[in-house]
Amino acid sequence: MERQSNLHSQDDAEPSVLIGRALVKLQRAVFIAMSRARQRLVQLSIVFSFVFLLLWIAAFLYGTFYYSYMPKATFSAPVNYYYRTDCESPASFLCSYPMANISLIRNKKHVLTFGQPYRMALQLEMPDSPANRELGMFMIKTTCFSQDGEQVASSARSSILRYRSDLLRTLGTLLFLPAFLTGAAEQKQVLEVELFSDFTDNPYAPSVTAVIEIMSSKVQIYSSDLYIHAHFTGIRYLLYYFPIISAIVGVSSNFIFLSFIFIFSYMRLLFQVKPQRFRMNGTEENNQQGEGRAVPAGTAEMLGPFHQNPTDVRQEEPHFHVGNGTEQQNRDTIGQGEINETEAA
Hints:
Helix content: 40-55%
Subcellular location: Endoplasmic reticulum membrane
Radius of gyration: 51 Å
InterPro entries: Seipin
Organism: Oreochromis aureus (Israeli tilapia)
Keywords: Endoplasmic reticulum, Lipid metabolism, Membrane, Transmembrane, Transmembrane helix
Strand content: 15-25%
Protein name: Seipin
Shape: elongated
Distance between the termini: 70 Å
Number of strands: 10
Strand order of the largest sheet: 1-10-5-8
Largest sheet: 4 strands, antiparallel
């Protein structure tokens, strides 16, 4: 009966033991999987952080290069003319030629970049009046001055209103009569006069002002504006007319260069650490070998009977001792003390 009960108890215990072992193995597997997943997540976060940092640095370098290398593409400024009206002749309303002084400095910085060619044009909005039609051709003179008052460049260009016959003018007036009456359109012409086709500023005497003079005392002008356009060539042409492709190429090249530097520095650090480890291991082994060789003869007795020289082995008979060497020495000393006591007695 007892055997049967033991057998039944063993049979009942075996499934529980197997289930417990399976649960332990499952727990270990889950723990290992979670630790590996956590480790991979930490590694991925570190890699993502480094990649994001390198991309940000690459974009910052490209933006800095673009801001410092690319000049301002366009510049415009209104032109306000001044003239004298204190003349004695009643036939002429203007006693001097209209002149205007335009500053080429914005926010304490020069508008024109050294070495960059520019195109300067003057846009005139003139009424289609009989005085302007009778004016015919007129000259526009432009002079650029440096801060010291030195003349940097000068040009003179001629212009004239577009010809329109009386019939064409009458038909246009009848066609656009509602717009003229409501003020949506005006009878005017817009002239664009090229002052400089390829102007390059002098780096030793940069231009700070431009003086525009219309050499006619009968000209009538609604408004006037000065436009400066940069002629880009080479890399600046690509950066200005293809900004997205240039940005992708620039950021990618900076990212590759920074990645190469980072990987090279990391590999160099690894190669510097490994030889130091090898040297430390080598010195430890040498120290251990030196200690083994430098054991003195007096300490041989402390190591026990197993430590003997080859000459002693040949001369003496082998003795087999059981136990530690220090315990055997204690026994020998105790036996020698008993023999001395018996002899003394």
